[in-house]
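User: Second chain of the day. Same drill as before.
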Amino acid sequence: MPAASLIADIGGTNARFAVARGGRFDHLRVLPTAGYPTMQAAVQEFLAGLPADLHVSRAALDVAGPVSGDAVSLTNSTWSFSIAAARSELHLTELRVFNDFAATAMGIPHLEPADSIAIGGEERVEHGPIAVIGPGTGLGVASLVHGSDGWVVAPGEGGHVTMPAATREESRILDLLRDRWGHVSAERVLSGQGIRNLYEAVCILSGQTSQGLTDRAITAAALAGEDAACEQALDLFCAMLGTVAGNLAMTLGATGGLFVTGGILPRFPDRFVASGFRERFESKGRLSGYLRSIPAYLVVHPNPALVGLANLG
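Assistant: Same format as last time:
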């Protein structure tokens, strides 16, 4: 039987723990990060709940925050730790720590066909570069390239590129946002907070009174057809994501496909597939034909980061 490893996908709100063996995982458990003073305390809680005959000595974690060196701090949580000290405290022989979106990207080559929904394009080129983009709390961007030893993830900060406008309406919206922040990154409009920013801008430009809705409430109202400003904001979100995703795919030459991940879009997959995303993705003037050949997919697997960690070499 393959050796068991602890894996964990640690965000600012929840930490998802599991046991990985042979590229698969089980014993999934979700713990609230606010419920534990440290990452180590949460790990110990998870380990205490495992069967008595199940022992793990190695671990691979991903965290919502930058990973560079031994000291790790989560961006939206009080958790921080030393990798070396945590390995010792938890009695592990190995502890590997990754950025959360890097782990998500690593999971892409191991997904099953049912784990994603195709959104246009032609067949994927085997071992062609893969682009990954994920709106959620923020906007994650990464790429995968295939080398002699398999897939290699290239993480980056592509969510903070300058957001371009593709229409006059988007120009007016971005002008409003620039008045507030100066620089408007893609993440300012392509995230949970981004949906709220789009909604507020739509209300201002249309002379409507904002209801101060959350991104989930905006999405729910849009899907139910209850509020025109919410519908417009959601339509803008999908189209503007297509702009950024198309730029990413063209920059990387992503013949292996563009994969959209994150926690927002799987809540309304049919609406997203039918949105202006694909049209905007391909709308690159003389290079539109090049983009038409690149397939795009919406990842609907609930835990692609755990898939990535479970398949580490």
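The two ends are 17 Å apart (CA to CA).

User: Great, on to the next one.
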